[in-house]
Each structure stands twice: as structure tokens, then as C-alpha cells.
Design goal:
- This protein has about 525 residues and is α/β, with parallel strands linked by helices.
- It folds into 3 domains: about 240 residues, 3-Layer(aba) Sandwich (Rossmann fold), CATH 3.40.50.300; about 180 residues, P-loop containing nucleotide triphosphate hydrolases (Rossmann fold, 3-Layer(aba) Sandwich); about 70 residues, no CATH class.
- It has 19 helices and 23 strands.
- The protein has a 7-stranded mixed β-sheet, sandwiched between helices. Strands 6-9-10-3-11-12 form a 6-stranded mixed β-sheet, sandwiched between helices. It has a 4-stranded antiparallel β-sheet with strand order 2-1-4-5, with helices on one face.
- The C terminus is likely disordered.
Length: about 525
């Protein structure tokens, strides 16, 4: 008898090199993707993940190396070539048309045609079959896309990708805008596709999701392959160390320090809210934050986390309750009033409520301080330079980025610039809404460490993150929200875990609980 041959990868990359002006994005990278597996590609920003996806999907032609599909060399001149080879892609931002129905989006460019044009009955039937293939029979093909949730839209994008029953599916940050329940739905669909023999390449900044769904991992760093590993053989600390190229004991130590930190809350609160709320948006609640304390807000998407941040920062006006800053009752009619009381906000959506992409990083960093001063009193050049240099050092920013338009910089750099802008006003209360979303591990470590340092310097911090692990790691206390209502509050410590928070969120909505 002859020994069984090892299965041939559906896609194999051999010694792939891709060069851009002034940079080598991939340097001799090997990669294998097999049928019926989920293979996660992990790495920080600029590691080469997007370029590797581009090589597989035909948007980047390699300068050296080979792309093989079923063992045969292929050279893709565009997305159409890769699609013809059975490779489909779903990107982070679903490229859908909100004015069309589910069926029209799923079948766009593949509509069934008859003698008199598009046969909508057959087109909707094909769309329903694609949805059923994903286990989404309950999604009506006639529904306007604009009525769907973000998760449903992501599933529609997935259905469009699988209409042609691809053999390879590339998922590029598919969960970045989804909450926990929505992610669970998408993961169920991905597992169903894997069971059907589809080869799935999965890219995500969320480590827990990658561990939960993937069979193997390839780690990239600086455009080079660090290695390929069976997920079951790799623990989280090892993965992060491989991604960063350095040990992560500092991050572990940060979590231990915060957990061991017991804040004496008998002083004057930096911020205190009583019955704060807004009709139709947030139920009345009490909040108290001490100087030097990090209070985390935990809850699913839509639980009211961002609404709390908006009320506390003056972005939205409360219509009930009272608010005190350092013992003085105030009314926050606008963000500028909040700034005058030294309340600074780093908003969740840095693209629309944060950075101004056309301005340089330097100009973005001084915006809040200049607004606080008033535009009739411009900052002196020396003062502006000194401020910028302070945060370049504190946040490990690249000085070469300072005079570049911030819109072309990485997500991690943009997030650090927003943090620098908030810190420039020397806030007493700092409200951080998703400060680490969509940024790489190295930037997360820097931002989390800086937040902890700020608390140590006496700043009162409100910390919001969809990643409950972050909330538990950094917070002294955790306020738990559900259905836009405060349902509980946890004093953090060694016995508090992510499961503690999840169990509280999952419980039936009842009276508030203090633990």
C-alpha cells in the first residue's frame, strides 16, 4: 500500500514579495490555505496583511514569487481573475447599495434575465437560495437594505460573495462594527461554510475571535512571515509576542496593577451625575467618578455606552438629572462648555467625529486647546511645538508623521493623535469611547499603558470598549449597561473576569446590583 498523500492547498503563495515606493510590503512570504479550514492571518498594522489579501484577490501583483491555485501557477491581473478562480472577498466596510433590496444587493451584476429584461422572480429565488446556503432563510429578499442591522448587512455582503459558491472566501475584518450577539451569528455562518469545504482566510484585530474560529494562524511582522501555527498549539501571550516581536509582560503587569489597585472613594468626586438621562435615548442613572479612577462602561452595542459618553461630554444635552464637576453643579450645553470644565472626549467614530483628515497630525493635536483658548488667541508656535513634542514622546508617535495629512496615517496613529488632542487641554475628566478599536496590538499596548498612567496622575477616566477583556483589565469599577439602562456596578478585583460581566449582561433585566 502507498502512504496517503498530504492534501494539496487550495491556495499556496511561495516567496511572495511586493514592493511599493519606498517600502517592501511583503518580503519572501509563504502561505498555505486548505479546503475546509479557517486560517487567520495575524499581525499589527503595516505587517502586510492587506497586501497579502491583495495578492490573493488580484489587487496587488507580486514583484517576485508564485501564486498557485490547486497546484497550478496563476497570475491574477485583477479581481475578476481571482473570482474566476473561485476566490471571493468580503471587506470590512460592506460595499452595498442602501437604496436597493436584499435580493438586488445579493445578485448585483448576476441578475437573471429573460426576454423583457431582468426576471425579478428568478433573481429573488436565486438570492433566497444564497441566503439559505448560509442558513439565513428567515431574511426576506424583498427587504430594503436600509432597514437591516449592521450584522444583517454584513451577512448580505457575505451572501453576495457566496452566490457563485466560491472555493475560497477572504474575510477582511468582518466583525469590526458588530456587537457580541451579532458576532456569534456571523461565526455560526462561517462554521457552516467551513463544514461545506470552503477555505476561509480570516483577518481580524480581535484576538479572541481569531482563537475561537480559526484552525491555523499565520503571523506576519514587518512584511515577513514569522511562522504558521495550529491555533490549538498557540496561547494568547505567545501570539502577541510573535506579532510584536517582543515580550508582553508589561501588558500582563498592567492588568495585575489595575486589579490590585483599590481606590479610596471618600473624597470629592471629579464628576457626579444624579438621575442623568435623555428621553428615548438613555434611562436615568447615577454615576460617580473619583480623581485617579478608571470607570469602565460595559455592554453590548446599543446598550447606551456612547449615549452616556455624549451626555457627560456635552455632545448631547440631558433632559433630566443634575451634574457636578469637582462639587460645582454645571449644565453642559455644548462640548465647548464641557471643555471649559476640563471634560475631554475622544469619540467612538474617529472618521466623522474626530480627526480632520485634510489637516496635519500636528494641526489636529492642538485643535481642542486652541478651541478652549479661543480663535482670537492663537497658540504661539513655540508653545504648540512644545505640546506636540510632549505627546510624540509620551505616545510613541513617529515625528515623520507630524506634517503629513492625518487622513493618510494608520488607524493606530490617528487614535493616538485623538488622545493627544484630548490630553492637551489637561482634562480633569477624560472620556474615551472605543479608544483602541481597529488598531493593532502594539498601538493598543501603548494606549492602554498611557490610560493607566493618566489615572495615576489623578485624571478621572471613563473607559468604553467593546472588548470586555480591555474593560476588565483597566477599570477600577465597571458600570454595566443593558437596553440603555444601568443594570449593575462591579468593583474590580482578582475575582472579576469577562465572564462575570457577560453573566450580568445575559441576566434578565431587573433592579441594579452593586457587587
Amino acid at each position: 500500500m502507498t502512504a496517503d498523500r498530504a492534501p494539496e492547498p487550495v491556495v499556496r503563495l511561495e516567496s511572495i514579495t511586493v514592493e511599493f515606493p519606498g517600502a517592501r510590503a511583503l518580503d519572501g512570504v509563504d502561505f498555505r490555505l486548505f479546503a475546509g479550514e479557517v486560517h487567520a492571518v495575524m499581525g499589527e498594522n503595516a505587517a502586510g496583511k492587506s497586501t497579502l489579501v491583495g495578492v490573493i484577490t488580484g489587487t496587488h501583483a507580486p514583484d517576485a514569487g508564485s501564486v498557485l491555485v490547486d497546484g497550478e501557477p496563476r497570475r491574477f491581473s485583477g479581481v475578476a481573475d481571482s473570482r474566476a478562480a473561485g476566490i471571493a472577498t468580503v471587506f470590512q466596510e460592506a460595499q452595498l447599495s442602501p437604496n436597493l433590496s436584499v435580493a438586488e444587493n445579493v445578485m448585483l451584476g448576476r441578475e437573471r434575465r429573460g426576454r423583457f429584461g431582468i426576471d425579478w422572480r428568478r433573481t429573488r429565488t436565486d438570492a433566497a437560495e444564497a441566503l439559505a446556503w448560509l442558513g439565513l432563510e428567515d431574511l426576506d429578499p424583498k427587504t430594503p437594505l436600509s432597514l437591516l442591522t449592521p450584522a444583517q448587512k454584513q451577512l448580505v455582503a457575505l451572501a453576495r460573495a457566496v452566490v457563485d459558491e466560491p472555493r475560497v472566501l477572504v474575510l477582511d475584518e468582518p466583525t469590526s462594527s458588530l456587537d457580541v450577539a451579532e458576532v456569534a451569528t456571523l461565526m455560526r455562518v462561517i462554521r457552516g461554510l467551513r463544514a461545506r469545504g470552503v477555505a476561509i482566510l480570516f483577518i481580524s484585530h480581535f484576538l479572541e475571535q481569531a482563537f475561537a474560529i480559526s484552525d491555523r494562524m499565520t503571523v506576519l511582522r514587518g512584511g515577513r512571515r514569522v511562522g504558521e501555527y495550529a491555533t490549538r498549539d498557540l496561547d494568547r501571550a505567545d501570539l502577541i509576542s510573535k506579532m510584536l516581536g517582543k515580550d508582553i509582560e508589561s501588558l500582563r503587569a498592567l492588568g495585575s496593577e489595575r486589579k490590585a489597585h483599590h481606590y479610596a472613594s471618600d473624597g470629592q468626586p471629579a464628576l457626579q451625575a444624579s438621575d442623568l438621562g435623555r428621553r428615548g435615548e438613555l434611562e436615568q442613572m447615577d454615576i460617580e467618578i473619583q480623581r485617579g479612577e478608571i470607570v469602565g462602561l460595559a455592554g453590548l452595542r446599543g446598550s447606551g455606552r456612547t449615549e452616556v459618553a455624549s451626555l457627560l461630554s456635552g455632545t448631547v444635552r440631558a433632559d433630566s438629572g443634575a451634574l457636578w464637576i469637582d462639587g460645582e453643579q454645571v449644565q453642559l450645553r455644548s462640548p465647548s462648555v464641557a471643555l471649559r470644565h476640563r471634560i475631554a472626549l475622544s469619540a467612538e467614530n474617529r472618521g466623522t467625529h474626530g480627526i480632520i483628515g485634510e489637516l496635519t497630525a500636528r494641526e489636529n493635536m492642538i485643535l481642542s486647546l486652541q478651541a478652549l483658548r479661543g480663535w482670537s488667541r492663537p497658540l504661539a508656535p513655540a508653545e504648540a511645538s512644545a505640546l506636540v513634542e510632549t505627546y510624540v514622546e509620551a505616545l510613541h508617535l513617529d515625528p515623520a508623521d507630524l506634517d503629513r495629512p492625518v487622513g493618510v496615517l494608520s488607524g493606530g496613529t490617528q487614535q493616538k493623535i485623538l488622545l493627544a488632542r484630548a490630553l492637551a487641554v489637561r482634562p480633569h475628566v477624560l472620556i474615551l469611547d472605543e479608544p483602541t478599536r481597529g488598531i493593532d496590538i502594539a498601538a493598543k499596548v501603548d494606549v492602554q499603558r498611557r490610560i493607566s498612567q493618566l489615572a495615576g496622575d489623578g485624571v478621572a477616566v471613563v473607559f468604553i470598549s467593546s472588548e470586555l477583556e480591555e474593560v476588565v483589565r483597566l477599570s477600577d469599577r465597571i458600570i454595566v449597561l443593558k437596553d440603555r439602562e444601568k443594570i449593575g456596578e462591579l468593583s474590580n478585583g482578582p475575582g472579576v473576569t469577562v465572564d462575570t460581566v457577560v453573566e450580568m449582561i445575559a441576566a434578565e433585566l431587573g433592579h441594579s446590583v452593586e457587587l
